[in-house]
Structure formats: C-alpha cells, structure tokens
Amino acid sequence: MPAMSPACAANSLPPEHALPVVIVLELFEMHRQDSIYRATKALNKLSPLALAVLVLLAQDAAQAQSSDDERTLPSVNVTAPAKRQARASIAGLGDGPAWQQPVQAQSFSEDTFKDAQATRLADLTKLDASTTDSYNTIGYWDYLTIRGFTLDNAYNYRREGLPINAETRLPMDNKASVELLKGTSGMQAGVSAPGGLVNLVVKRPDRRVRTANVALTDAGDLLTSVDLGDRFGERAEWGVRVNAAAERLATHVDNTRGHRQLIALAVDRQLTPAHTMEAEFEHSYMSQPSVPGFSLLGDQLPSAHDIDPSLNFNNQWWTQPVQMQGDTGTIRLRSNLGQGWKSTITLGEQRLKSDDRAAFPLSGDGYSCLYGTKNLAVYCANGDFDLYDFRSDNELRLTRSVLAEVQGRVQTGGIQHDLTVGVLRSLFRSGLSTQAYNKVPETSNLSAPYTPVSPAPVPGFEVSNRREQSTEWRLQDALTFSRETQAWIGVRYTQLHRESSPTGGSESPVADDRSLATPWAALAYTFAPQTRAYASWGEGIELKAAPYGMGYNNPGAILPTMKSRQWELGIKGQYTLDKAVQQWGVNWFHVKRPEADFISYTYVPDGLSTHQGIEGYWQGRMGAWSLGGSGMVLDAKRHGSAQDFINDKSPVNVPAHTLKLSGAYAWATPLPLTLQLDVVHEGRRWVDPDNTIRLPAWTRVDVGLRATQALASQTVTWRLGVTNLLDTRAWRESPNPFGAIYLFPMPSRTVTASAQIDF
Hints:
With 759 residues, the chain is mainly beta.
C-alpha cells in the first residue's frame, strides 16, 4: 500500500476527525533528528500553545455540534471495576482480560486501600508481595522496591500515564486506583530504573457521587474528606468531580503532629460523539516533622524489643517540619477517528515546592563509628551518635510533558495488527539551594537523645540542579495469528538532552546528548480455556551521574548508558466459580542490571546485579469468602564488581521471600457485615553489603470490620481497623542511604475508626 501524506490522510477522514489527526501528525513533524535541543525548546513553547490549541479544538467541535441538531450523545454506562485486578493501563496493552496480557501488573482500587487501612503510596508494600519498603518513614515521601530494585522517584512514577516526580508526598484522596507494573519498563518509559512503574489514576466524572468521610485513629489523627461528582446538560455532556480533604496528622511516634490539605477538580465535556475533552487539577500541601531511623550499635544489631518505637531523634526544640506542596494538572482530548482508530493528546504539568528539614543522626564520636568494608556510618557501641541539622529550603521541581498517541487495527492476510504509535515530549527541571548540614557540637546518646544546643544553620553543602529534555517515540504492534497465538513487538526510541550544575558554582556544569532504543517482545499461547502461557523479553535504560559536593574526583560526571535486560516466563488463568471470576498466575523473571558505585572517591560503572525469582498470585471469591494472596521468592546477587567483598553477595534491605494474604468473610445479615484479615510476611534481609548481619523475618497481622447501613436515601459504611493487631516488635527494614545503615521499627498497634456516608 503506498504511503499517504499527512494532508491526504487528514482529507480522507470526515471533517470532525481531520483536525485531531493533523495535530498528531504535526507533533511528529516538529521533530528534528539533528538537534534535540532545538526540538525541546519547541516543547517549552508548545506547553502554553498546546492549551490554546485544545481550546480552539473545543470551539471548533462545539460549532460542529451546534450545526447538527440531530446528533445525539451516547449514553454513559458505568461499571464498577473489581477492587483488585491483575492488569494495569500503564502496561499499554489495551483493555483485554488480565489472563491474556504477557506482563505482571496489578491495579488496586480506592476501596482496596480503605479496607486495608492503607493511607499512602508506601502501603502498596502491604498489598503486593513483590513490593517492599525502601526508606519509608513518617513525614517524608515514599520509596518503593519492586523485585529487589528501588524505584527512582524522578523517573518511575506516572499520573494518568504522564511522567511525574515522586519526590513529594503524593495524595491519595482523589485517586480512583493505583497501578503497578512489574519488570523493566523501557517500553513504557524512556529512562527508568528496573523494577517497574507506578501509575496514579485520578477520579473522573462518571455518575452522581455524594460521599463524605471521617476517620480517627487512637493516636489522634483526624481525616475529613468529601467526594462530589455529577453530570450536567441536556444530554449529560458535562461532568464534574470535586475532591477535598483536610487531615490533622498524628502517630504514636513523638513529635509527629502535622497537617495536610488537598483540593482536586476533574471535569470533562463531550464535545461531539467523536470528541471528549478531559481536565484534572489538584493542589496539595503537607507539613509534618519526619522520623529518622535507628542504627547498629557498633557491630551489633540491637533487639527491636529493647527500642522504644515512639522515640524520635528529630524531637529537638529547634526542629522544623518537612513541608511539601504540589500543583499538578492535565488536559486531554480523546477522539474517535472511525473505523476502529482513536487518538489521544494529553498535556500535563507538575510543580513541586518543598522544605526538607530534619535533626539527622549519623555515626558518632566525630564520624568515627563505622561498620563494614564500605565504612558505613553506625551508632557507637555505647549508644553515642552525632546529630546534624539538615535544612534544604525552597526546593523547586518542574515536570512538563505532552503525549500524542494513535491506536487502531489493520488486517494483513490472516494476521490482525493492533497498532500504537505515540510521541512523548518532556521537560524536567529542578531548582535547589545550597543545603545546610551542620553538626551539633555535643554528642548525643540513646539514653539522652535530646540536645539543648542548636547548630548554626549556615548553608554550605552543594547539590546539583538538573535540566532534562526528551523526545520519546513509541511503536507497538500486537499481532494476533489465531485465537490461541498472539505476539507483541515494540520499541521506544528516546532522544535526551541533560544538563547538571552545582548550586554553589564551585564545579563546572556538565551537559550530555544521547539517543537510546529500548525494544520489547512477547509471545503468548492459549493452551486451555482462559489459560495462557507467555514469554517476554525487554530492555530498560538508566543514566547515572556523580553528585556534587561530596569530595569526589569526578563531580557531575555522567556515566555511559546503563541498559538492563529482563526475561520473563509465566502462566496466567481465569475461571468462574459461584458466578465470580477467579484469577491466578505464576511466573519466573530474570533481570540483569549494570551497577555504579564510588571506588577510591570516583563514581564509576561497577559490575552488575542479577535478580531472578518466582512470583505467584491468586484472587477471587468462593461463596461468602473473598480471598487473595501473592508471594515472591527472590535470589539477588552482585557480580563482576571491582569490590571483591560484594561479589556473590545479596543487596541490602531486600527480603529473600515475601507473602501477602488477604481474606474477607461477608455475613448476609440485615446489617451486612464483612470481616477482613490481612497477613504480611517478609523474610530475612541483609543489613550491610558484606552480608554479615541479617534482620530476622517478621509477620504482621491486620484486621478490619466493615458494616454497611442503609438510612433512608443514604448509605453509611462503618469501618473499624487495627494494624499490627498483635503489636509485633520487629525491625521492618534496613536501608543504607547517605552512606549509613538505618533500622526502622515496626509501627505500634494502631486503631482506626471511620464512617463513609453516601448521600
């Protein structure tokens, strides 16, 4: 078939479809192979212009609608999604059943979070066995580890499919679901750490919603929120959804009182039967003191039973809270181009401002208490530690992106092709100030952790500001050979411009331009009814640079491209029992990732990590029972390092096995009552890179009770939950950030009562 020019392609479509196609094609035409910098400058100009273009589209489409009084809008059908689904839209594989998709993904609804007493993104560690903690503490942003790899907060998070920065506390009150994609994500993101992607799905208008919620914990935390939505117009062409929340923050840990607020708005407009405009905006603010971790006492692991979990070293008279503010918005045009083709154009922007502050314990006796071959900071054997006043005020981060995609189906002979073509253009920019990191003159001790002396908060610690512009082209083809056999091939081609400069200007800024390709392929075969085996292979890209201000020999140096690769084999199935759908799956994965480390004060590539393991899940209903569970067994090792002491050793803070179980039983009484039990088990993990000290395995039990009461035209859902029912004392995790070993205890037993009123 001869190639068709953009003009001809647009002219061959009906008038109401031509303009979106021209917009998409023009985005492709804007690209210049010889200058990514010039192209990304166009992106900066496009951001305000894109909004104007979309407004013009709305006006044009509205005129087209008014010129044809006989057009009618399609009815809106609302189907409540399952609370947990074994698929996610961020995988980019369409809306097919979970058992047909050759990836491991999960989607957790708002109700799943509420029933599990999950309130923040870090609580995903309770819901999925492959997801564990990575320096998650009170009053700070969330870190997640998937398949043993810590996600990069600057690259591995999405909102409505667009890149966002997760170096902030992401609010959950206006999120309909959280999606989790496991494995290398080079097909979905040009640059990202291996492990997977997290995508936040915003609540959108779909029907009449009137919900108010109030929740109270025995620690004094009080949350109030409202969720209001409806459709308007003669044919319900307008939709509006408003979410608002205010919370008084409090925990059982000392000096953790704070507050947060959220206001969010989502609107949509059915312009014509072929065009829909959608927009979402949210503003959030949070202020709360953070909680630093404990550490080893010399070369000994202290007993978690001997440590008071309410102790907070940040409880100093001069401590200031961490403050985080975020403004995020998206605007989107969805178009049905006819004959099975559709397009989406989305513009998004996120602006973050934060003040990062803490009284930070690190080593002891003038930074002389160190452990292991890497000389990681620990507390002294007698409980002494040094305390630092850390302050990094007025941190600014900007993420701006525009995504254009076209999807459709063609037939070539006996093969059906489901095609996706897209381009994502992004800008990332940070504006940080020189930080204060000053030692308190007096030494502190676990027996007397509070000091009357305040250090002078004089900034003198340099960090790097970054600016990145990228253009990412995506092409994917899902080939259906028969009812039993299907294959996927795809590639993402990324052109990236990076700049990095120190805040103090003592070192020279660096810049880098490079092009990257990340292919992906999968093959699946249905060998039994609704049961499919699959194999997949893919690549991912990471770009690492040496930090400034640490006394290294190559500050700001950008390392060569680091490409991770993954194989995955699995079987997935679905069947119906007692009129309910049951889903299950088991898979093996093998990931190789190049590593980088500091050797002789120089940041260089240093061998690789190999993570391989087996995952499994099952979820479904049997009569009055709702059951679900997932598990992972992981073998992770370092190889080829110039540091012989870590070769064939396991990474720190990664459990060797995990098991997450959830069961609920519903009584069909006049007041419907559901009892839910959640069990979280994580195996032993290494504390240090030498693999000489291990944290014991631990198990936590949570219980929840839900009752639904009908009152006239209202429905009240009562929830009573207890996390850590048995008040288990254990070390929950042991991360090694900032050149130190930290230990975080299991939070104390917490009781939460809430009432949700639907009116």
